[in-house]
Each structure stands twice: as C-alpha cells, then as structure tokens.
Amino acid sequence: MSPLLRRNLQMLPGLLFAVLIAGINFALFPRFLRLFSSHLLLVMPVAFLALGETIVMATGEVDLSLGAALILVNAVSVVAHSDYGISGPLFLIIGLATGLTIGIIHGLLVSLGRVNSFLATVGTSFAWSGLALLILGEPRGSVPSWFSELFSTGLAGIPIGLWLLFGSLCIFVIFEFSPLAVKFYAVGSAPRSAFAMGINVNRIKFYAFLLNGLLVGLAGLTITGIIGSGDPRLGSFSTLQAILAALIGGASFAGGTGNGAGAVFAAIGLQFTRNLVAWFGIPHYLLDLTYGGIIVLLIIAISFARRMLETKGMKG
Amino acid sequence: MGWKLEHWVKHFGRTVALNGVNLSLEPGTIYGLVGPNGSGKSTLVKALTGLVRLDEGKLFKDNTQVTISSPLDAYRHNICAAHQEISLVPNLSVIDNLRIAALLKSRLFGLQSGELLEEMLSILDVFSHRIPVQSPVRRLGRGEQQLVEIAKALGARPELLLLDEPTSFLTERDIEYLFEKLLAYKASSTILFISHRLKEVLEVCDKIIILRDGRNVAEFSSKDVNIDDVVEIMAGRSVASFTRLLREPSSLKESGGGFFSARVRSPKVKDVCITMERGEIIGLAGLVGHGQSELLRAIAGLVPSNKVITLQEKKLRIKSPADAIRNGIVYVSGVRADMILPERSVRENVAIIKNGLQMPLAPVRERMERELAQTMKQKLGIVCRSVDEPVRFLSGGNQQKTVIARALAVKPKVLLLDDVLKGIDTVTKTDFYSLLSEIAKDCAIVFFASDVDELLPIATRILVMYEGRVIAKFQGAAMTRENILAAALHGGGE
Amino acid sequence: MKHLISKERATLAIAKYWKAITPFGLFIILLIIGQLASPGFLSISYLAHLLTLAAPLGIMTLGQTFVILSGKEDLDFSCGANASLAIVLAALFLRHHGLGVVAPMILLIGASFGILNGIGVRIVGVPPLIMTFGSAMLLYGVGQAVTRGMSIGTSPPLLTHIALGRVAGLPISFLIWMGLLALAAFVLRRTIYGRWLYAAGSNAYATRIAGISFAQVGIVAYAISGALSALAGLLYLGRFAIPSGFKMAEGYTLPCIMAVILGGTSFSGGEGGVLGTVGSVLFLTSLDTFFSIFNIAQAWRIVLNGFLLVLILLFYARRAKLRE
User: Fold this and answer.
1) ipTM, two decimals
2) What region does B241 belong to: left with phi over 0, alpha with psi -120 to 50, or beta?
3) What is the pLDDT of residue A137?
C-alpha cells in the first residue's frame, strides 16, 4: 500500500469516531440536530489546534503550549479592541499575527536553537499564560460588534461553525497536496536521510511551527468570538484534547505520519463526548477530572494499540 | 579540468579523519578509493556532499574554487552520491523518495524534474529486480534499497559521481549491470568508487587511490597492481595473505554434535539444525535476509522461537538474552548502533555483559573493570586515549572491537557473530581471524558474514542458508567461493 | 607512563564534573547579586532558611534524575502530584497513627504509583510524558476524592520538627537530603544497578542484548522517583502544617525537571548524575526566594519561569547539528 494512500486512510478513525459520537448524541438528545452548528462552533478552536498539532507532529516535533497560546491570542485581541479601540479587519490581523509570532518564536527555538520541542513548548506555555495574565489581568473586555454578529448569525446565512469547519478542511487539503507535505513527513520519519537528500530540515520544521502558529491564531480568534470577551483561565484541556485528536488522526510522537482531516473530525468527536459525560450527572468539580482522565486513558489505549500493531508488523 | 582537493583536514573530536588529503581527479576516469577503516573514505564522500564541514581544505572544480556547505550546494556543483548508509526515507515510497530527489536536483542541475525522475526510474528498471515503486522503502530488501540509492545518484548524470560501498548487498548480475553503466557514464563525468572489495575495484576502475590514516599515500593505474600489493600498502606493513586458510579443516572429525546443538523454528527460520564440536567455527553464508541473523538471534533468546538447545549434553531453556548469556551463549551484532553505549566509557562498554551477570546491589569493582578493559585493549588492539574515554569518540572499527571484547570478557562457550566484520578493513580483519582461531579452541563459534570471503579463511564448515533453510553444507576442499555463491544464488546444491 | 595515564583521566574527570559545578556557580552568582541589590541579604539565617526550603525539592530531584537517566525520553511528570497526594494522605493518617507507621506507608504508596508509571512506560509502551502526566491526573483525582475539597488533618509536632528544625546549626531536612544524595550517588556510581541504569539510558537495545532487563531497570527508577517524591511530600506537610487542597505540590514538578537538566544530566539519558543537582536546586530555590523578596507579581513569575526553562534548554538540551 502506498504511503499516500495509507495517510489518507488515517482519516477514517477520526471520521468514524465523530460520526459515532454524533449519532449517540442525536439519539439521546433530539434537540441536538437543531443545535448542531453551535455545538460544532464550540469544537472549532480545538479542531484548529489539532490540525496545527498534526502538522507539527508530522515533522517529529510537538507543541505543548497550545492552550496557553490560545489564551494569549484571546487576551491580545480583546485588549486591542477594548483598550485601544481597534476594530475592523485589523482586529483579525492582530489575532493572526499574535499566533504567527508565537509560531515564529517556536520555529526559531526548534530550528536555529535546536532545542527539544516538547520541553521548550512547556517553557513557552508559561511565558504565554503569564503574558496573557499581565495583559488582561482578569476576565474582561469585549469584541467588535461585527465580529460577535458573525458568531451569532453567521455569514451569508450559513452558521459560522460550518464555515470554519469548511475552512479547516480547505487548509488541510491545500497542505496535504502541496509538494511541501512530503518533505514534512520525510523530515519527521527520517531526518538524517532527508538532510542527506538535500531537504533543509531546519527550515521545514520552522515552516511547520509557522503554520501551526497561524492555526493557533485562528483558534484564538474563534474562541474570542465564542465567548465575546477575554478570559485568562481558558483552555485547560485544549492542549491535551488537541494532542489526542492528532493521535486519533494518525499522528505519532515519533513523527512522519498524521492526517489533519482525521484530527479535525476526532476533535469533533471528543467535544461531543464531553457533552455525553456532562449528561451522566457527574458532580461539577469532578467533571474536569473525569473528562481529563478519559482523555489520558484514550491516549494510553492508542499508544498501546499502536505498539501492538507495530510489533505484529515486525515479527517474521 | 576536473576536480582538485587541496589539503583536506577534518577532526571529529580527537579522532583525525582526514589529515591532509590532496587529490586530482580527471574527468573521464573511474577512480577506486580504498583504504583501511578510519582512513577517511566515508568522511571524504560526506565532505563532498555537504554532510560534513571540513576544518581545512579547498575544493576546485575546473580550476575555480567552490565551497560546499550543504547537500544543496553539492547539487549545485553537479555532485551526486550513493551513500553507504542509504539516504532514503524508509517510510516514504520509492517513488516519493525519487520524486523529492528529482525535484531538488532538477532545479540546481537545470533539468526538468519530470525528465530526471524518468531517468532514475529507467535506470532502476535496468537492474535485475522488478522493484515495486509504490511500496515504502522499508519494505524493500537491503539490496533493492541500494539499487534505488544508486539509481537516484546515477539518474542525474552528475559531473562527479560518488559511490560509497555500492555493491555490498548486490547480486553478481546487478554488479555487472552497474559496472556496465559506469563504463558508459565515464566519458562525461568523474567517478569515485569506494569499496573494500578489492577484486571489484581492480576490475572496474582505471586508477586506484589508497588512503591510510587520513592521507592519500599512493595512486596507481589499476593494471599496474594486484590485490596483495594494495593490501600491503593499505596496511603499511607486510600482511599475511588473508586468502590463505588459517586452519586445517581436515584435522577435525565429522560433526558429532557433542558440544553444542541447536534446532530452531521461527517465523523466518524454517527448520534449521546445527550441531558442533568444541573448537569448530561454523560459517553461515547465503544472501542477506535469508534467516541467518534471525537464526543467531533466536538462539540468543532475542526473538521468540521454537527451539531445542543443547550445550555440553544439557538441555537449555532460553527465553531471553539473559538466559542465553547465563549459559555461556553470547550474541554479537555487527550493527554498531545496536551494540555500543556511546556516552559510556570503553571500560563500561567492555564490562557490561559481565556486569549484567551480577546482582543489582553488588558493588562495582572498578579496579577489575579497568584491568579487564586494559587486557582487552591490548589483545584486540583497540585504539583509544584511555579506557575511560567515551566510546563515541572511537572510530567505527575500534567501536566494533570494543563490542567483541565485551563478548570475550565473559568467556563464552558459544559465540554467535552476526556480520561483525562488515565495514572492518582488511588489516583489522586479519587480527580478528588470529584472535578467533585462538578463542575457538575453547568454544564453538557460529559466524554469519554477508561477504563469503570473510568466512573462508576461518570456517571449519560453511552452511548456506536460503529462505530460512540450510540448503548446502561445505567443508574441506569443496569449501570454495564459487560453490558457495552458486548455492546461495540458486537455492540448491551445485 | 603512569603519569600520562593519570593526566588523561584527570582531563576526562574534569570534563565530567564541569557540568556538575556550573549550576553551583550560578547559585553563588545569584547570592552575590542578591547581596549587591539588597545589602545584608546574605546572612546565616537566610542560608539556613534556604537549605530548609530547598531540601524537599532536592530530594524529589534525586528521584527524577534516576528516571531521566534511565532512557531516551524518560521523565517523571507526576512528582509534584505524588508529593501532593502524600501531603493529603499523611495528614489524614497522622490523626490516628504515629509517624513511624505512617511514613513508610506513604513511601510505599508513592513507590507503587511509581511502579505504575514504570509499567505503563516500559511494558505498555506509553510515551513517558503522557503516562506520567496521566498518573499525575490520577493522583490528583485520588487526592480530590479522599479530601472532597476539604482540608483534613495537620502536621504532628515531630514531623514539623524534622521539616523545620535544626541539629548542630544545620537544618534536619537538609541533612536528610544530603544523606539521600550520598546514597543516590553511591548507587549510581558504585553499584551494579547504577551500571545497568546508565547502560539502559545509553542504548536500550544493547542493554537487552547484554542480558539486562531494560524494563525492570526502568520500573525501579520510576519507583524510586515515586518514593522520593512522596518523602518530599512529607517534608512539605511538616513545613506547611496544614494541607490546603489536593494540588499543593503541583508547582514543584517543573522546577524538579529543570533542576535535573541544569544539574548536568542529559535529557536523552545515559549521561549525568546527582552531584550537580545540589547546585541547581539551590539556584532555583534561591531564585524563587528572590521573587518573594523583591515582590514580583505572580504573572511575571510565571513568565520568568518559562523563560528560564527555555534558557536552560538552549544551554543544555540542544539537538546535535545534522551537518557535522
């Protein structure tokens, strides 16, 4: 089976997962269908993060600062509007630029600095959340009215959630079928060989973080639109959810694989799972812990399953 | 015209890889580059392809100075190489790998990437196998991977073509085709052919360059020298001919199997039974990947298998490497990356199996460790500043010696050697042979070598394996290179 | 001839110990800066206070060193959680039982969670970051369930004395730390298990081939880390007296890991040791006291911590260049 085919097949687990969980939700809550697009909207921030994480993991690196970066983008854009009166398209640009800057910093650390990405991004996550705290101070702020309009009534009659889902899949398609993608996977699975072939490994990793930064910017703007203000306490599970979604989408910590569309669908499935968990009436202060526990168990289960498949493949 | 290397110097830590190499390469010539391990051959290739940065030295192409600071620079100057450690991405398909190479090279060679890809594929077609280009590289056999690597380099018709040990996994027919292609390309480029296989080098190359200790010490036209001359210059001293047998096989009686016997069945080993006397050295031959390594690993307990192992008339239960080692069966792999502890000292590396046999809370006897390491250092001729030096600073051949020392340190009863002489130069090999024949007096050795010539001087019997079975046995006068190769290739007796 | 050999050994020894001395140097520099910024700052009482403060982190760091040494990506992200659970459980049990009974029990519980980590990482094959993060969540979950958000129990006088008291001028907890340090250094350098640990971190496959159980070596390392984290938790209970919540020691996880790397142990295992952690733990702890003394806002502390980690990584944990 050709690697290209295998990578596209990796979309299936995420897709099936999303369809399954959505189906269960429909069955248990008849009103789910009507509220589908708003449920979808709530997923999109993590979905964007998951897409970005898949791209980064394809090159063999990882970004653990996603949740914190999300908060920072939120803080910066809200402050730009509330304290500096920025409205109009500049508002969007600032959000994206923040994400991009975060991506550039990570990219430089990993490519020029050659620093281990997962410890480095743990470190930068502190920087991002600290900065968000400094900039915002406390939950406050507002967004431009046209922006919140977008989130409540949609664009051209179609709910913004669907637009964003469509947008994320477009980004995936553009990435996956560009000549750059093969190089990403080469760098992730065999960096020495890729280098010997003439691929600029450092530059590819830089691009990966750049792209990831852009997606973080999109995620940050989305969450800002959803809550309509700034909150530096957001995103406690975003990073974990994004990683799990990426793993379901076929990514691996060893690099070289992963399917962004699968990750997006997996993120949808995970969010809908959260609804289910809430439905079971778990006391509020245990909700987060339970959900977090489930996520970690799933990550463990996937690693285990992968390990089993690997050793089966290697035998004989 | 042509290429000129002026005073190339490269140090890796404290090891000197290149120590003032000066070469003049003319177009239209095939140069054979030979030399013992650590003489700098691979470093030379890596420096020419941008994988290694020189400490000193200039490169001239057609009398203009050029610098190569990355693989793309090498392409820019029309240099391509088929590396010894293949530069393909295992998880990508063959065609994806070639596509990337074509894309990168075409821009810099001024060609169309589509055409370049076609050329690479057509070269691949010329070789004897039908290689499935859509399948991932890691599914290919080692020989097929090498063919892809060669096609990738040849396809671009570079002005300087470097081939680093290109034939180590190829069949005789592939080698013939390769030589044909090289002779055809000769007119429009300069070719550098690096190999330990002196016979091949003399066959296809016009000139021979001999490297020793990081310097080029001699250059001859290939018709003016023979193998023994070359070996002598490589060694810098007179070396007993390594083609002469070191043991008299007829002095051993027919295998009674009294000392050690193993019967193995595993996924890759169909049903192999080996019986040996103490003092025997059994050579395993055959094409790579036909179960030889798997057999050794199974006996050593590294992979699960169905086996019956008897040592000194006692049946053994071997479920793990620890079981094997405790019974005196020690396995040594030729893949250095699998065996060495790079950050640890020579002393620790040599002692590790011995230490594995102790109790965890037992104190470390540093003095004994040091003495052991010093003894081994002398016995095997390990070149290092001190036994406390981290093994990663040693040259490849010396690392290999350290690994073998580790096995010898526990005085094994059965020694399983898995292609351990691969990449070792002729001079060191001869030292090994003397050492092995001495050790063999007290134990039994099963030795797999992908190169038959490595087995002939030392084996008392040779078993040829094909698709997991032993399909031929040779000893005495019948143990010749031709017979063995014939068996290996045709999968049956002569 | 012998003279030459010992010169070589001396050079190699210096190269080895250099990494252990550097963080201590950083610590001294920090003290000097402190003295210059606020004269009178450097006093015996401050130093004694610092040693008391640093001891639990120091003990935790010993365990973390074992784990990081044991393999290519191994680390223990559950050390803070382990300590937090120890605080809560100890406070709970010490209401009705003596320290002599409770302390070993707490250590055993810590070691058990460590073994759980080890099994997950070595046998099931979960990446260490994920596994230990997961068990951290589990530990917090257990702590939360047991306390139901309330604050139960307190530190008995004996424990408080051990945590805060002094003997011959030196803090008892510091002496415990030093004692465990010596024991750890002995195990690492002078026992066979130490050889196995370094080998495992250097090349897992080669260690297996040599007949050593890579899995068992790792599981023991995680168990040690679990037990030592629990011990640190006991000392924290002694110091803070009242357990306030089930995540009390959460903030120590990252400094613990930073301290190991700053102390000269390679993140990819197989190289390093515990001696350097003295300097690095003292450095990080005194840096923290600076934050308090100079009244630095919480937000800035967080940012600076992140900065510090990245800086440490830039100096100690860079990948090798692809082009040699």
Assistant:
1) 0.87
2) beta
3) 81
